[in-house]
């Protein structure tokens, strides 16, 4: 499912992110993909991070009549499109939801974090995974920075 939100606030964004992530972690295509990515790996969350970074292109939200329209593509839709041989791409929020859904589908605690990087208004999203050694670790698949690196931010909201 793709959802475009024309007049949105943070409450709308949080609502749709929770719905899409929860549904995605239970989706059969997402589960099968997560199992195939993590099968036989010592660090499944790193395997998921590397797979998403390699296969999901970054595409900014569309701009219509000079205004950015917030668009989410569900993890279930991204997994289906991948299995159908279609190119998959989205912006930071859908990247984060996909990483979270893939981790949760194989039993790893994960969450979406929204931050305000350039101002107090939220403008970036990434996933965090829970590790027994380090606690919550950032996994931003849209950044060239390594796992664990976090942008300096004004605002932080955990979804």
How do the strands and helices of this protein lay out in sequence?
Blueprint: E1 2-5, H1 10-26, H2 28-38, H3 44-55, E2 56-58, E3 63-64, E4 67-68, E5 70-73, H4 75-83, E6 88-90, H5 92-105, E7 110-116, E8 124-131, E9 135-139, E10 155-158
Helix pairs in contact: 1-5, 2-4, 2-5, 3-5
Characterization of the model:
By secondary structure, this protein is an alpha+beta fold. The protein has a single domain (2-158), classed as Roll (C8orf32 fold). Helix content is 40%, strand content 26%. The radius of gyration is 15 Å and the shape is globular.
Shape, principal axes of CA atoms: globular
Structural class: alpha+beta
What level of helicity do the residues show? 25-40%
Major sheet characteristics: 4 strands, antiparallel
Helices and strands, in N-to-C order? EHHHEEEEHEHEEEE
Give average pLDDT, whole number. 90
Q: Rg, please?
A: 15 Å
Low-confidence stretches: none
Distance between the termini: 19 Å
């Amino acid at each position: 499912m793709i959802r475009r939100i024309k007049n949105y606030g943070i409450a709308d964004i949080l609502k749709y992110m929770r719905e899409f992530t929860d549904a995605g972690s239970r989706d059969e295509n997402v589960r099968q993909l997560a199992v195939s990515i993590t099968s036989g790996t010592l660090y499944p969350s790193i395997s998921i991070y590397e797979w998403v970074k390699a296969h999901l292109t970054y595409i900014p939200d569309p701009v219509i009549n000079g205004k950015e329209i917030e668009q989410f593509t569900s993890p279930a839709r991204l997994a289906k499109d991948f299995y159908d041989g279609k190119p998959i791409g989205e912006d930071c929020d859908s990247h984060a939801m996909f990483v979270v859904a893939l981790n949760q589908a194989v039993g790893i605690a994960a969450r979406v974090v929204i931050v305000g990087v350039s101002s107090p208004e939220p403008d970036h999203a990434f996933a965090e995974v829970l590790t027994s050694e380090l606690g919550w670790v950032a996994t931003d698949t849209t950044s060239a920075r390594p796992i664990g690196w976090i942008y300096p931010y004004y605002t932080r909201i955990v979804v």
